[in-house]
Amino acid sequence: MTVASAIETSGLAKTYGKTQALHPVSLAVPQGSIFALLGHNGAGKTTLIKLLVNIFRPSAGSATVLGRPSSQIAGDDFTSIGYVSENQDLPGWMTVRAFLQYQSGFYPNWDDASLIQRFELPLDRKLKHLSRGQRMKAALASVLAFRPSLIVLDEPFSGLDPLVRDELIEALLDTAASQPTTILLSSHDLAEIESFATHVAFLHNGSLLFSEEMPELSARFREVTVTLAPAAEGEVAKGFATPATWLQLQHSAHTAHFIHTRADSEPVEQQVREAFPSVTAIDMDPMNLRSIFLAIAKSGRTVGTTEGGRL
Amino acid sequence: MSKTLRIVAKDIRHLWPEVLLTLALTAGFAATEHFGWQVGQSSGLRESQILSAWMNALMPLSWWLLVARAVHDESLVGDRQFWITRPYSWQRVLGAKIIFLATFILLPFLLAQCFILHQAGLHPLVVFPGLLLKLVLLFAFVLLPLLALSTVTPSLTRMLLIFLAVIIYALLAIYLTSAFGPTAPLWVPMGDRQIWAAFIFLIPVIAVAVTLLQYARRRTPISNWLLIGLIGLLTFACIGSVYVKRKVVVSFPPSASGEAPPLRMEFNPDPAYQLAAISSLPKRGVESVTLLVPIKVLGIAHSHAIDVVGKSITYEDAGGVHGTTTWYQDSRDPLVGDAQIREEIYLPQDIYRETEGKSITLHLAYAVTELEAEPMSFTTPFNEAQMDVPQNGHCFKTELFGEVNCQYAIKKPQLTRITWHLHPTCDASSSADRADEKWIGGEEASETGFSPIVSVNNILNADPLGRKTDDGEVCPGEPLTFTRYRFVRRRLVEITLPPIDPQHYLLPPRT
């Protein structure tokens, strides 16, 4: 494991009977990153996270979390790992105050005063009587209060109204800015992650499609639209083989359209002119996370299909 | 505050209604238990005794509730509990649960035991090791299985359903065992005891394994298989029990040749022991007739006794009709010295009718336990108010029926022979008329239920049914001698009677 990785997995997989919930996953979460684990419902995000915090045991492969094998994580390890999940069973009979007071005794460093104020937590209300947003705030406060080195959040913003979601994101970003913290969070809502994640990984049907830094990903993917001369009628040069870095190539009499996955490093214009001799114009538009995910998912490619382990 | 105590404090804060209920029922048990052993002391206790019985039933239910609620507060089943990703070590959580249960179940139960003993006039400190053993047994055989079952269930409802399923299965298995096994409803042969002892020993062992596995690893599927394995062992124990009951003689070996002292049992041909001939036969439809055959028991050594615990009878008539009964219990008191007994023999009525007017040959096999008196006996003058007796007991005469009842602390007395003399009247001039005796206690001093008091009633009435006799009375000041007997060995004694006419020994049918 490199020192710079807070989490590193190697062929980590999980099966339930004959069902492969998670195909072997190898990824690294750099220290200090805000790492977004993306994918639709049932993609394997929760399984991967629960393997990392030793709620589940892997069927194959291994992982290290803060330098410790994930299968050995227990007890005092959770003084430096904070975990919050959307469907975690909190002790509903406790008031927020009692919950925070009870938790405070388990951590050497605990400071919840500013968090109570920030989240405007109703201290005397029982957890079971809180709204979804308030409950998530209380859960997050109980994690941020002990200043963990690693914060693992499983679908923390699911079902929250935008105001609460922004509050939580802001709190996370402040935490990341004020102390050396790594944040790993999963989400099926790509738009909400795009604004603050430093790294992203896509899971699709239990397989890792790719794992990459956000700026690099944004730079690589381009939606390319090619305008062809009217007389050419969409003719492709003889002997042209579609490059592996082109996804979803479609062309008609006057236009061609595809996603380029290496627009930052390959000569896109030259490739297009070789493919379509009658080209008159080339437009390259940046893509958002959602479009990138959909393009990759529809093409059915995975991280291992191209040289260098990336598309 | 340590993390363990923090969890305990949290449990108390959350489960205070269950804690209060448990404490109230334990207090109720302590307060009403004496009603249960005041039979015959005064009238009007019926409602109180029902209350005492309810407390005895409700108290363990409150334990079940408290154990389940305490464990489920940090549930070990599932993957959504918040506490599994918090800095709780499993040792701390398990330690907290044990401290909680010890504080609110074991300690109150111990105090209740001391209170009940004190109320009965027995000193708790004298039997303190026994009290501690009782707590250990309560923990091992009641709380640990409940703890283990709680660790593999996510909720009270699920646990209740599983608990009921296990109870129904166990009752069914035991019923089938008794249905298919030989007729020995009360007498449990030694081999059978060993099988059940092994099974019962496995209950806390598997409960510990499941509890540790769940707390340390949360491996619910494996734990479930362990518990299912225990149920499987119950099935094996039942099958083994049936097998062993059929092989009972293995536990009671025949006397070796030259073994001293030779114990003999012989037919007593003295016509004085024959019954008056009965002209009418028992009614048809009655399955069996009862013969009372006189037997002499010889060769019981001085300071020894024999206890006939079971018997089997083989009969054969001149025409070759024959049969053998299963082993069945013999409930008579142990025998000392040369003794005369009338052996009750149950003969199928159709056999009796077929052999009418003919003679039959009986072969009797006795499973016998040989006992030896301990060198020191204890003699105390009879005191109607209260008298202390050996083995942590005391006796007193009840107000209502005038019986002499005894109470023992923690466990029933070892097999003890009480001897005394009856007087025609209790006048100063009256001299002792004849010797009398009563056996109390058991060969094995077993532990009792929840109560620390074991009652042994009517100790000065030699009639096994406790009927009042006109043979005389035990007068105040009469020396009562208590002699304990210890187990020496088991043996099988067999005799073949000369051919007899069954009609001469037929017990008159009840009219």
UniProtKB/TrEMBL annotation, chain A:
Residues 7-230 form the ABC transporter domain. CDD domains: ABC_DR_subfamily_A. The keyword Nucleotide-binding applies. It comes from the Bacteria. InterPro entries: AAA+_ATPase (IPR003593), ABC_transporter-like_ATP-bd (IPR003439), ABC_Transporter_VariousFunc (IPR051782), P-loop_NTPase (IPR027417). Keywords: ATP-binding, Nucleotide-binding, Transport. This is ABC-2 type transport system ATP-binding protein. It comes from Granulicella mallensis. The lineage of its organism: Bacteria, Pseudomonadati, Acidobacteriota, Terriglobia, Terriglobales.
UniProtKB/TrEMBL annotation, chain B:
Keywords: Membrane, Transmembrane, Transmembrane helix. The keyword Membrane applies. The chain crosses the membrane at residues 12-31, 51-72, 93-120, 126-148, 160-182, 194-213, 225-244. This is Uncharacterized protein. It comes from Granulicella mallensis.
